[in-house]
């Protein structure tokens, strides 16, 4: 039997830049096939070619042994190819069912037969263990369920080959586990899955085969049983990568940040922080572990002056900063690597150079009497780009044009170079590949070794365990325990994060 | 990448130019369809703009307020705000200038400067009010500025009728000391009402560019326009910038209104409807890609075609509406830049392949 998908010698160029150079991808029916590569390696280009969004310049595609010319996504759908996009394409005020049937509604006369549709959705959902409520509105359901709606959309359209585009980037650890199970259910029902990712553990956990591409080049395909994480990582990056963060024991000094009995209102009116207290000392990295939505974002916003504090105090170097303006707090010595780099970290339409001075543009030497000195700005940007190895064609390139990892490096360059006493890093490696993660962890440790305080907030337990000197677990707006990373493990942390069992030294 | 940056800069110029050409072609086809000869039509438009010094001077007179209106719209737009209220702010500027011009007594030249300054402040505050409503109360600026247009129109009519009334439904004439007209300039253009306002418009285009691109204020305004969230995270005051942007936008519209009163008619008419200049400013800004220099180009095109169209109707009997269609098509092609971009892409790709 021929392979269900064969992409042979695919080459795709954009304005002289070769995104895919003679790439092969052969996927057998009923397998979960990983497509592994760093950000910008050409994974999305290859998949968009398979999905009919791009036409290859060279090479051929065969589906179930037959040579095809996939001219548009509708044709891909007809061939049984479905794509679960990383950024959901859902109509928020519509129900789950309405979103799924959009474009191919079952009719009852001139009316949409919503009953029938709901029944069909329910059946599909039950069959693959997707557990969605057909009548719920998209805006009311969790990110994980929204993703399952995207999966249902492709199944409803009869997809046999499902492309998952970095599906775990937006999920919590629990949801990731659920997704893995769903993927296994799907292949056991005869579906085929192409899984785009750069998370090696997930590949090891769920895939059968892995195709690796690097900088647009085909590196090879391996069976998962014949490989391991280190091997995959070095194939992906092209050199040996360390996962252990190289650091000496912390030598903490006096407190830099002291948060006491902080109460802050969340977006929905209820208190998101309920008397939270913590302390970060100079020369240490305090990691905050917790499930998303337990007050992490509100804590950061409260410290940085972006959210009003109802009661409690925040001291920076023993001076109160609660309810001060963001600019005053920045000037007092707080650096902030925000969780959402596109929304909060960068002005994407500004050049990478202009982004380097987003907080300091009004200060000398970048401005004089209200007039910008672009020479100084770009000279500074060139220095940071070099020092932090930001891969960009030039300092005049719009931030939008950079890859995610390099955008993040730009933000880290900006925040670290201001040399703040307290550096807040929220999910600093989200969506990045191992090379960039290694770099960013190194920079956080360097800040610590320079005697600065670092507050790391992350949903990735591995990151928390590897990088932190102390771990504070947040649950429902309070710190429920503080543990040492070398004395704890996933299970204990997971339990505490879920509100069960208290660690020692909880405040 | 460097070359792609140059391409995008080229496109910024190329797209409007192509849009104009496409607009003229479509307009020409429509004239043919209506039974008129487009070559005759366009050449009489051309005559109406460049035919003699008087026409040229009057064209530039018509272009002047459009530059201000276009700058006002473009400036707000760069900060992410859609100021539909340029019309009302323009009217407030006219009224303020008419008032100061008629009632205050000051030396020649200074009088005009003070009248313009007062108009700037009045219109700036009027626009700033909409900005304040948005920053403080979250009321969308499109709603407030549309409503404020009506308030401005009827308040101006009432004020003229009650306090300023001169001859035949118009405000009292301004004193000669407040005039922006120059005899030698008028003489040069065979009596056209071209005035110092044009020079002011060009200066303010430069000022706008400098303010937006070269100052810390402009850096903040643009950052807020592109991404208010990141601006807030970086410590910028988003509310202040929204207010400031509308204040400056309104002030620009106000100068436009002032030069119209002080430079052209010398008074302000009680009017049943809007001047339309503020709304035309939206089109001008769009053609000019919200760039201050682009706005000059857009105003020249818009003002030139509109003014030249009168000649076409007078001489050839072709209705001016056909030129309105041309202008609409130009705007359409600019707005649908993706269409033009797509055409360009096809063209480039073909070239690229043949080079290889």
Automatic annotation (TrEMBL), chain A:
Give the record's keywords alphabetically.
ATP-binding, Cell membrane, Membrane, Nucleotide-binding, Repeat, Translocase, Transport
Q: Does the keyword Transferase apply?
A: no
GO CC terms for this protein? plasma membrane
What's the domain of life for this entry? Answer: Bacteria
Q: Which PROSITE patterns match?
A: ABC_TRANSPORTER_1, ABC_TRANSPORTER_2
- Please report the stretch or stretches of sequence annotated as the ABC transporter domain: 5-240, 257-501
The entry's family comment says:
Belongs to the ABC transporter superfamily.
Q: What is this protein called?
A: Heme ABC transporter ATP-binding protein
Query: What is the organism of origin for this protein?
Result: Tumebacillus flagellatus
């Amino acid at each position: 039997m021929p392979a269900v998908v064969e992409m042979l010698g695919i080459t795709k160029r954009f304005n002289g830049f070769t995104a895919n150079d003679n790439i092969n991808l052969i996927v057998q029916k009923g397998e979960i096939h990983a497509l592994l590569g760093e950000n910008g390696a050409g994974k999305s280009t290859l998949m968009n070619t398979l999905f009919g969004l791009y036409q290859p310049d060279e090479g051929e595609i065969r589906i179930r042994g037959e040579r095809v010319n996939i001219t548009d996504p509708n044709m891909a759908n007809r061939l049984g190819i479905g794509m679960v996009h990383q950024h959901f394409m859902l109509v928020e005020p519509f129900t789950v069912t309405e979103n799924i049937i959009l474009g191919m509604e079952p009719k009852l006369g001139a009316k949409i037969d919503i009953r029938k549709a709901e029944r069909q959705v329910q059946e599909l959902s039950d069959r693959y263990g997707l557990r969605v409520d057909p009548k719920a509105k998209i805006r009311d359901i969790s990110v994980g369920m929204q993703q399952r709606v995207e999966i249902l959309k492709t199944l409803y359209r009869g997809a046999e080959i499902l492309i998952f585009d970095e599906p775990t980037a937006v999920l919590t650890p629990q949801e990731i586990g659920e997704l893995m199970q769903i993927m296994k259910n799907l292949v056991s029902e005869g579906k085929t899955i192409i899984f785009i990712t750069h998370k090696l553990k997930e590949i090891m956990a769920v895939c059968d085969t892995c195709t690796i591409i690097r900088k647009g080049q085909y590196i090879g395909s391996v069976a998962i049983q014949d490989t391991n994480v280190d091997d995959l990582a070095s194939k992906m990056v092209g050199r040996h990568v360390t996962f252990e963060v190289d650091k000496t024991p912390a030598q903490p000094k006096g407190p830099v940040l002291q948060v006491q009995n902080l109460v802050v209102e969340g977006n929905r009116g209820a208190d998101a922080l309920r008397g939270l207290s913590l302390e970060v000392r100079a020369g240490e990295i305090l990691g905050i572990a917790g499930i998303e939505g337990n007050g992490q974002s509100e804590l950061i916003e409260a410290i940085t002056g972006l959210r009003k504090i109802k009661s409690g105090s925040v001291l920076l170097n023993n001076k109160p900063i609660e309810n001060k303006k963001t600019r005053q707090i920045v000037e007092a010595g707080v650096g902030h690597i925000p969780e959402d780099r596109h929304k909060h970290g960068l002005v994407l339409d500004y050049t990478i150079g202009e982004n380097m001075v987003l907080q300091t543009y009004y200060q000398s030497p970048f401005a004089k009497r209200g007039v910008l000195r672009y020479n100084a700005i770009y000279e500074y940007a060139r220095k940071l780009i070099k020092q932090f190895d930001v891969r960009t064609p030039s300092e005049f390139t719009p931030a939008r044009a950079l890859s995610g990892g390099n955008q993040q490096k730009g933000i880290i360059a900006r925040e670290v170079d201001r040399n703040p006493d307290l550096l807040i890093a929220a999910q600093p490696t989200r969506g990045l590949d191992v090379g960039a993660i290694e770099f960013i962890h190194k920079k956080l440790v360097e800040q610590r070794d320079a005697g600065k305080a670092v507050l790391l907030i992350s949903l990735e337990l591995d990151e928390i365990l590897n990088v932190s000197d102390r771990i504070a677990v947040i649950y429902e707006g309070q710190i429920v325990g503080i543990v040492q990373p070398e004395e704890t493990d996933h299970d204990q942390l997971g339990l505490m994060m879920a509100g069960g069992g208290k660690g020692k030294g909880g405040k | 990448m460097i070359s792609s940056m140059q391409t995008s800069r080229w496109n910024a110029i190329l797209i409007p130019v192509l849009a104009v050409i496409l607009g003229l072609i479509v307009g020409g086809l429509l004239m043919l369809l209506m039974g008129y000869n487009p070559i005759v039509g366009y050449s009489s438009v051309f005559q109406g703009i460049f035919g003699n010094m008087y026409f040229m001077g009057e064209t530039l007179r018509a272009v002047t307020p459009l530059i201000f209106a276009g700058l006002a719209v473009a400036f707000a737009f760069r900060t992410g705000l859609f100021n539909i209220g340029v019309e009302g702010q323009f009217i407030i500027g006219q009224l303020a200038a008419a008032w100061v011009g008629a009632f205050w007594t000051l030396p020649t030249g200074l009088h005009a400067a003070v009248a313009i300054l007062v108009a700037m402040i009045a219109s700036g505050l009027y626009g700033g009010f909409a900005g304040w409503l948005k920053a403080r109360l979250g009321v969308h600026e499109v709603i407030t500025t549309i409503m404020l247009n009506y308030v401005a129109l009827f308040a101006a009519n009432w004020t003229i009728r009650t306090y300023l009334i001169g001859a035949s439904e118009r405000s009292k004439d301004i004193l000669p000391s407040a005039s922006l007209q120059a005899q030698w300039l008028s003489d040069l253009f065979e009596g056209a009402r071209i005035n110092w306002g044009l020079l002011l418009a060009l200066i303010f285009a430069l000022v706008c560019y400098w303010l937006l691109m070269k100052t810390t204020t402009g850096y903040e305004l643009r950052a807020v326009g592109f991404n208010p969230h990141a601006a807030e995270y970086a410590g910028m005051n988003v509310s202040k910038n929204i207010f400031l942007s509308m204040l400056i936008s309104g002030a620009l519209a106000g100068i436009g209104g002032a030069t119209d009163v002080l430079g052209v008619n010398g008074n302000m008419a009680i009017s049943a409807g809007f001047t339309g200049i503020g709304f035309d400013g939206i089109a001008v800004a769009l053609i000019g890609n919200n760039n201050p220099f682009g706005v000059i180009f857009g105003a020249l095109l818009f003002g030139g075609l509109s003014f030249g169209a009168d000649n076409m109707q007078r001489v050839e009997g072709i209705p001016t509406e056909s030129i309105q269609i041309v202008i609409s098509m130009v705007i359409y092609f600019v707005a649908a830049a993706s269409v033009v971009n797509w055409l360009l892409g096809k063209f480039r790709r073909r070239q690229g392949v043949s080079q290889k």
